[in-house]
Amino acid sequence: MFKRLFSGSRMTRECHVRFCEGPSGKFQRSTLQPAIIASVVWVAVLCGGVYWFYTARPVPCRPRVAVVIVIDQFAYHYISKLKQHFNFGFKELFDHGFVFHNAFHPHAAPATATGHTAINAGTYAMDHAVILNGWFDCRGDKVKFAIDNRPEAGAFGPCGSRQRPLTGRGHLLTTNGLEVQKESENKVHGYSGKHIMVDTLSDQVMAGGPSNNVFSISLKPRAAIAMAGHRGHALWFDGTCGGFTSSTAFFDSLPEWIVEFNHGYNLDLAHYPEWLLAYPASSRAYDFPYIDNYDYAATKIRLAGKKLPLHDIIKKHKDDDDGAMLDEVKILTKTPYANKMVLECAEHCIRTHYQQTSDGTLLVWVSLSSLDIIGHLYGPDSREAIDMLYHLDRQIGQFIENVQRTVGEKNLVVALTGDHGVARIPELAKLAGNARARRIVSNELIDDMNSLIAKKYGVDQMVRAFKVNQFFLNKPQLETLNSAKKKQIIADLKKFLAAQPGIKKVWTFDQLRHATFKPGSLENYYKNQLYEGRSGDLVCMPEHGCAISKYPTGTVHRTPYEYDTHVPLVIYQKGVIGHKVSIKPVLTFQLPVTLAKIIGVSKPERATEPALF
To answer: Under CATH, what is the fold of the domain 430-552?
Structure first.
């Protein structure tokens, strides 16, 4: 219906312009033959009739509020497995929304920053340039997507004060995936979206009118910033103060409404002493293979259905309040209570700004990170991951109901998707019957590669790092070598990698960039995620079920295979967009084009794929 109405209106306008105006823009007497004139008149009358027919009918409600919920690591295989136990938000969306059962991220190396940026920019990483969460630049310097060293991107500190100085060394990436800010004596830096090389849906909404507004909220800075783009307003969780923060790239000062939310929200482990299961422990909702197999998990500490280790934290940090709070935050971000906090912050944002956009559009992005955090540690088969989704089902249902009460059912459009999927823990995949599944420890590969080159060429530390599926060479070292030696070293490294069990294909950057693959092929995913100056020197494609990682336990999402790239996708506007199901393969970055059409703004400039409907 949307497509017919929108395309019909454009056709009508084009017909009136073509047949009623001359070159000057004014009506002119026709010099056409009578028969042609009659035809022209008939077409004009027909167009006028079409115009009357569509404009006289009720126009579907253009929503004033659009909410995009991105669940980090939300693989489609969770839906297939757990759908019968979803009774709240997920059930409402899948039973009453427009459901796309075959939505894929066309990424060879799925990552949080890459997936969130694609959903916002509507294009490939080779265009928007966010190839991974981090990379090495052409000088060999390490780059993190969200980090910006410029003074104008300085982060805010606790309670909205201007952030203390930060540096790359003082900016820690904790095991739960959250970038935690710490004091340091070096240069100031902060956060921005400067590494996104294209415009986004958020930018188009902000450009669409003075009453329009965009907010993005997440535990992770990189998720919030990827969704905010250049002109939206990003908010993320600061573990050092137990509240949401931002930077001067997005706000002149931390808004009063978020300061108010931080002050009013009690993030104290004493108030969340236990991870209560969503269903009774004996329920069929937990009757799955390997749900209690923690042999290959990154931690043996079980959280789901257990008391949270508050006593241990108090004992460990007896005289260190800051350290105790950081440890509490690390625990809480691995529980359903963190998702609850993010959704309640988004509700507060909508209540605060809805009336301020009375003649505009409010776009709110919500990224829920906790499934990804515990997914890496415990894997998708775990009780923690499964129960997290049962809680999300309830939490998202309550969130939608609350927002509908605030803005009205027809005034709200909701999109639900994931930024990427997740692989089964390789050792469990092997137990489940995938004989090829294996874990390849990247640090061991790097050591072997460096030993090979040192022994053969007398060059030390040639391989600098590995990220996701790419090996980065020591560029300063490489530039000291002549062309022939450089080519031979790279060829030897490629040959070594290709011979490793579990590695299917290896390309150099130049080989991959100039290769031609069938559109939609997995190999083409690799090519479309290249960006010169950011991509690695050697790119690996693992076998199905294999993971190349520096971690000896847990799991990752680093391949182009379905388990890592197939995600749910639903668009829901109660009473306006009827329930439909599509099994046609679609791309996740068609979502921003579709949302732009629904809310009446221009699509992102580099978006090339059509709207979903």
So the answer is: Gyrase A; domain 2 (3.30.1360)
Strand order in 566-567's β-sheet? 566-567, 103-104, 586-587
Residue 408's CB is within 10 A of a number of other CB atoms, namely 16
Among left, alpha and beta (phi > 0; psi -120 to 50; other), residue 242 is: left
Structure tokens at 476: 């300063």
Whole-number Å distance between alpha carbons of 119 and 587: 9
pLDDT tens sequence across 394-431? 999 999 999 999 999 999 999 999 999 999 999 999 99
Q: Do 109 and 405 form a contact (C-beta atoms < 8 A)? A: no
pLDDT, tens digit, 9 for 90 and up, residues 196-228 = 999 999 999 999 999 999 999 999 999 999 999
**Strand, helix or coil at 524?**
helix
Query: What is the CATH T-level fold of the domain 65-265+274-307+333-422+563-599, as seen in this structure?
Result: Alkaline Phosphatase, subunit A (3.40.720)
The domain limits of the chain are 2-56, 65-265+274-307+333-422+563-599, 430-552
Helices marked H in 88-128: 89-96, 112-121, 125-128
- CA nearest to 44, candidates 84, 11, 71: 11
- How far is the first Cα of the chain from the last one, in angstroms, to the nearest whole number? 9
The type of residue at 409 is E
Alpha-carbon distance of 118 to 103, in angstroms, equals 13
